[in-house]
Amino acid sequence: NPTLKDSPPESIIEAATYLARYGYSSSSPTEDKSGALVSLSSNLEEFQRFAGLKVTGVLDEATIEKMREPRCGVKDKLGPSYRARRR
Amino acid sequence: KRYALQGSRWRTKTLRYKIMSWPSNLLDNKDGVRDVILESFKAWSDVSGLSFEEVGTGSKSNIEIRFASGDHGDGDAFDGPGGTLAHAFFPIYGGDAHFDDSENWKVDPRKRGGIDMFTVAAHEFGHSLGLSHSDVNEALMAPFYKPPSLDRDVIKEDDIKAIQELYGPPAADAAPAPRPRQPSSPGDRQDPDPILCQDSAVDAMLTIDVNGQKRTYVFKGDHYWRLTSSGVEKGYPRLIREMWGGLPDNLDAILPYEEADRIYFFKGSQYWRMTGLKLDPGYPKPISAGFPGIPDNLDAAFKWRANGKMYFFKGSQYWRFDSELETTGRPGVSDKYPQPISIWKGIPNNIDSVLIYENKRTYFFKGDSYYRFNDAAFSVDASYPRSTAEYWFGC
């Protein structure tokens, strides 16, 4: 997604870290770049939907701002990795 | 349905919690922190079948509460001011709640800046009870921090549906919950009563059966009121002397004795008796004549449903009256009495009234607060005392 590629790398890393932290993806930003980018876009869409933002799959200003809001540390999505970690 | 349940819940509905560490910026206000934590749990017990009790750090508990910063040993390090404020574990993982001690916590929502502990704690305890995050933005269980609303009305419809799916609605016996003040029709509207909302301490309260209907009355000074399920009945207060033929004002205590369709009224050294809501002739009589061993100038009296005995309260003591003493076979008080009121765990001295409400629960009233007594546990229920004005008088 061109816009995503245009984002400064630190905000991509920041976003990917955030999404992984709150259960939107199991992949962490250090994995295979293109794989991470593709999953990032669909994970962004899922986060934007959950947070009540416009669903674009793009790391736009509103999404970055939302990610910087204070929040609860519990994941929004409790995948199998959550259960493994908790055990 | 936009809430989400994690999948585990507690088997018991009476949960105990303990505060294992305190916020560094509020070490001089632990009572304030304790109150806010209690209020946060109460927000959930008000809308579900749950009840909560704080226990000391040496006791067993279901939920442990900690304030810690950075890496605090659970694999989920905090990140300093902002960002993650707190996290909690679902029941299957222990239910504990951890708060980031590097936040600027506040217990007074009106204070500018800072992070409102009540709002965050109520959210985290939702996780401790088995709720995941909701994608309903205004729900308490949405993941993002919302500055506090002064009315503390943080639990929304989505949260209520979620918690009641796990633990059901409040037990039918809860005292009337404060209802929104929109009446079903203007005719029903009863403006908050100026006397009772100004000062909600009562002389005595009484629930009786009138023509098959349960009625609850409040006596205070020379007035009395009839209550509805959400406040005070229209057309009240009325004067005691006008409607309760010959009873005095400023009563001390009232004791309904349903078996004999009787009600006893106490004031000073005298008592009156009503049968079938009619004052019996030949009254008042000295308390010492009808209730030997019971003192004058009582605070409260009631017949306890758990054993059918009559109890009288005055100052820091209470007496049990037996209609047939084992020793003499006559009415009286055994020499074991008086005993300290503190035996009724959680009930203060110098109470104003005791009421067996239509839900068959025992309520103690003192000043502007009331206490729901758990007859089985022989102690006051968690999350009490509560405001009499709010819950009983609809103020």
Outline of the structure:
The complex is a heterodimer of chains A (87) and B (395). Chain A is built from 5 helices and 1 strand; from the N terminus they run ααααβα.
Q: How are the SSEs ordered, and which strands pair?
A:
The complex is a heterodimer of chains A (87) and B (395).
Chain A: H1 2-6, H2 9-21, H3 33-50, H4 61-67, E1 71-72, H5 80-86
Chain B: E1 14-19, H1 30-45, E2 51-54, E3 63-68, E4 84-88, E5 97-100, E6 105-106, E7 115-116, H2 117-129, H3 157-167, H4 194-198, E8 204-210, E9 213-220, E10 223-227, E11 238-239, H5 240-243, E12 253-257, E13 262-267, E14 270-275, E15 278-279, E16 285-286, H6 287-290, E17 300-303, E18 310-314, E19 317-322, E20 332-333, E21 339-340, E22 353-356, E23 362-366, E24 369-374, E25 379-380, E26 386-387, H7 388-391
Parallel strand pairs in B: 1-2, 1-3, 3-5, 6-7
Antiparallel strand pairs in B: 4-5, 8-9, 9-10, 10-11, 12-13, 13-14, 14-15, 14-16, 17-18, 18-19, 19-20, 19-21, 22-23, 23-24, 24-25, 24-26
Distance between the first and last residues' Cα of chain B: 33 Å
Radius of gyration of chain B: 24 Å
Order of helical and strand elements of chain A: HHHHEH
Total strands of chain A: 1
Characterise the protein shown here.
Chain A has 87 residues and is an all-alpha fold. Chain A contains five helices and one strand, in the order ααααβα. Chain B has helices at 30-45, 117-129, 157-167, 194-198, 240-243, 287-290, 388-391, and strands spanning 14-19, 51-54, 63-68, 84-88, 97-100, 105-106, 115-116, 204-210, 213-220, 223-227, 238-239, 253-257, 262-267, 270-275, 278-279, 285-286, 300-303, 310-314, 317-322, 332-333, 339-340, 353-356, 362-366, 369-374, 379-380, 386-387. Classes of the chains: A mainly alpha (87), B alpha+beta (395). At the A-B interface, strand 1 of A face strand 4 and helix 2 of B. Strand 1 of chain A pairs parallel with strand 4 (84-88) of chain B.
